[in-house]
Amino acid sequence: MAVTIKDVARRAGVNPSTVSRAIHNHSAISEKTKERVRKAMADLDYSRNSAAQMLASGKSGAIGVIFPPIENKSEQPFFMKILTAINEEAHQNKITVSIASGHTIEELLSQVRVMYQEKRVDGFIVLYAGEADDVRDYLLAGEIPFVIVGTPIERANEMTAVDNDNKLMGAEAAQYLAGLGHKKLAFVTNTDKGEVFHERYRGFEEKIKSLGLNGQLLYTSESLALDNVTALVVLDDILAIKVIQGLTERGITVPDDISVISFNNSVFASLIHPYLTTFDINITQLGHSSVQKLLHLIADPDDFREKVTVPFELKVRESTKAVN
Questions:
Q1: Which residue has the higher pLDDT, 92 or 171?
Q2: How far is Cα 191 from Cα 198, in angstroms, rounded to an integer?
Q3: What span, in angstroms and rounded, lies between the C-alpha atoms of 69 and 25?
Q4: How far apart are CA 227 and CA 194, in angstroms?
Q5: Which helix H or strand E contains 99, and what residues bound it?
Q6: What span, in angstroms and rounded, lies between the C-alpha atoms of 55 and 11?
Q7: Greatest CA span in the chain, whole angstroms?
Q8: For a designed S-S bond to 171, which of 145, 207, 277, 291 qualifies (C-beta 3.0 to 4.6 A apart)?
Q9: Which PANTHER family does its entry note (predicted)?
Q10: Ranges in the chain annotated CATH 3.40.50.2300
């Protein structure tokens, strides 16, 4: 039988959560305790190979990926790219991936129940965050291992999440444009829902206020009233391309008349001129980390919950320029 984190905890005389924190070299754990945990791991020949432990325990050797209940998933390159990354990491760990997808929460919940109750999967990666729903309530109530890609609004301390710092990204977008001399900025969105929007806009709003600049929030469902705005921060690349097309139809040129900065660094960001200045959110690492954390939770159900923050990088291209 495979040695578990509980066995190591008993040997070291600490809690399982302490063992997990020691393994992750958490600063809250003293070096003396870390050394005691390391010795217990060595004595018991404990392996951190989560996939191996999972298979040794008679698990299915498969994980589920839950897509959000939205109509236009195929129009969002994020989902295909992160699914590719999840498949790559799963393959490296010799496990398989199953998909749960539907147009409503009810359809999703039905699939998730069948997948878990029939032991087709051992846990789930949920590709949406924000407010709780029946799917997440089911996973929490059943103590089913799962990882969220994104930042949950409710009961966040009970879940493991993998995400970027979206608030910091919004702030850095405003900071970059301010550095180019722009003084009147706008944040453009097609939704007022979701944690991604709220965090990116909050970071943008707080930064422009701290810099003493003018800013506003614009919705693409309305005609964009630019009112001397010289730079736009757009919620994501797909929306940014649509915004640029709309500006072009009005005789407004990007970046000569107005600069545009976006998020996600999707495949479309460098397909159509002007190439987008955008934040690379490191989707590959988001996918890999979500699999790694889920396998660890499956192998060690008592492991502590945490938020894993994946770094981002600004890709400066053609859609932004300094003001004269």
A1: 171
A2: 10
A3: 37
A4: 27
A5: strand 96-100
A6: 23
A7: 72
A8: 207
A9: HTH-TYPE TRANSCRIPTIONAL REGULATOR GALS, LACI-RELATED TRANSCRIPTIONAL REPRESSOR
A10: 60-164+284-310, 166-280
What average pLDDT does range 2-30 have in this prediction? Answer: 80
Say which residue the tokens 């069948």 belong to.
Answer: 114
Lowest mean pLDDT among 69-73, 89-93, 156-160, 300-304: 69-73
The domain covering 60-164+284-310 belongs, at the CATH homologous superfamily level, to: Response regulator (3.40.50.2300)
Tokens at 36, concatenated: 């005691």
**Under 8 Å between Cβ of 284 and 162:** no
Distance CA 23, CA 225 (A): 53
Percent of the residues in the chain that have a pLDDT greater than 90, as a whole number: 68
Amino acid at the residue 185: L
User: What is the CATH class of 166-280?
Assistant: alpha beta
Tokens of 243: 């915004």
Query: Confidence class of residue 239 from pLDDT cuts 50, 70 and 90?
Result: very high
Neighbouring C-beta atoms of residue 110, cutoff 10 Å: 14
Cα dihedral 106/111/116/122 (nearest 10):
-110
Hey, what amino acid is at 292? Q
